[in-house]
Amino acid sequence: MALSDKKTLIARRLAGKERTEEHARSMKIDGRASLVWELIKRRFWRIVLVNLIMLAFCLPLIAVVVVRWTRVYAQGLSAVFSAGLGLSPCPLPSIAGAAEYGVLLLDLSFFALLIPALALAAIGIAGGVHHMRVLIRTEGIFLLGDFWQGVKRNFLQTLEAMLFFGIVLYVVRILADVAQYHVALGDPASGWLITSEVLGYLILSVALLVAMWMVSIGDAYKQGPISLFVSAVAVTFRTLPFTVLFAAIASIPVLLSLFGGAFFGMMGSFLLFLFGICYALLVWMAYSQWVFDRYLGADAETVAAAAERREGASEEPARPRKPEEPVIDYKTHVLLSGKSTLLSRALLPIDEGNDPVPLTALDRATLKGAEERRAAILSECAGHAAAHAKDPAIAEYNQIFEEREKSLPSKKKKRTKKPKMLGK
């Protein structure tokens, strides 16, 4: 499908629903891979801190996975899955499928526990996603308060994504265990059962990608529960090749810990504990921001600045740009500049009033006369300022700061009670 069709579909789902941002975006939008590497180098220990906070919310999830693995391993060691050597005079019953049935019983309980564990992990993921997105948009501004702001802002969207993935994971895993059980029993439809198991894991992979897009879209755009799911599905299938590629790159620590064997498994677990979750979120949020800028358009000033840099590097001069509206309005510019004593009152013209007289001597009479002339000039300046205090330009300038002072909360001094004297 053509690129214009992709832009039309994604823009129809997300355009005009951007969330308000607390931090201004950096003017640089290219070099996202190098930006992720620079952020890891410059903010490494702070990223480790955020990773540990997220890891604390993921402890129940980790506990469920570890306990389930130990139970399956212990069951394989303790249970007898052999029919003997034929030396017993009593016939032994067939125990084909007993091991698969035991795993099915364990998964019924442990994969059900994964759903509330994922809901609790959504707290940490919601804060981490917003924090990593702020790091990418601002190129390194780190405020720990952004994490808790992200929890407040994204928890419901992240909870929806985690519950969606947890339910799909539970259904797919139980159906896979049932298929393995029937294959072990020698069911004649074993081929179809194995095919359905493979198809179930493909559906689980797509559900994981959709959940990841739900998290990133929920942080950047205002979406309802159904609209968030539909938008995530649309973006997933419109950007499927790149989505699979960057999801695999972001999941390198997880893949190493699960399928890396003894050495690489320990290395992957160490990376996950140190900064692996933040690394995955940094890679994914950088990619998702690229998708938003590609199909929806970045901020006008950001794109224009990048275009000017590219044109400036070439031989042709940059074209003059005519923005439709100013980036900062007049009142905001005045407030950012601060109140000026020269602009808040009218100044006496230099060709009016008493002229300063240079000193010819340093005796008492001369200094006294100079002081009197100085007082007269100050009096004339004050009178001129009072006479022109209601001029439109001066009155509008002072009104801007008066409105700002009225909007600020007033600081009330606490009244301290006087200590009571003995006998009173």
Descriptive tags:
single chain, 424 residues, mainly alpha, 2 domains, elongated, disordered N terminus
What is the chains' assembly state? Answer: single chain
**Biggest sheet layout:** none
Relative helix content: over 70%
Count of domains: 2
Structural class: mainly alpha
Description:
The chain is mainly α. Helix content is 71%, strand content 0%. The model is unreliable at 1-7, 299-307 and 313-328 (pLDDT under 50).
SSE inventory with pairings:
Layout (H helix, E strand, L loop, with lengths): L2 H12 L17 H11 L1 H14 L1 H20 L19 H41 L6 H40 L5 H31 L4 H14 L1 H11 L1 H8 L1 H35 L4 H14 L16 H8 L26 H24 L4 H16 L17
Helix pairs in contact: 1-8, 2-11, 3-5, 3-11, 4-5, 5-6, 5-11, 6-7, 7-8, 9-11, 10-11
The gist of it:
The chain has 424 residues and is mainly α. It has helices at 3-14, 32-42, 44-57, 59-78, 98-138, 145-184, 190-220, 225-238, 240-250, 252-259, 261-295, 300-313, 330-337, 364-387, 392-407.
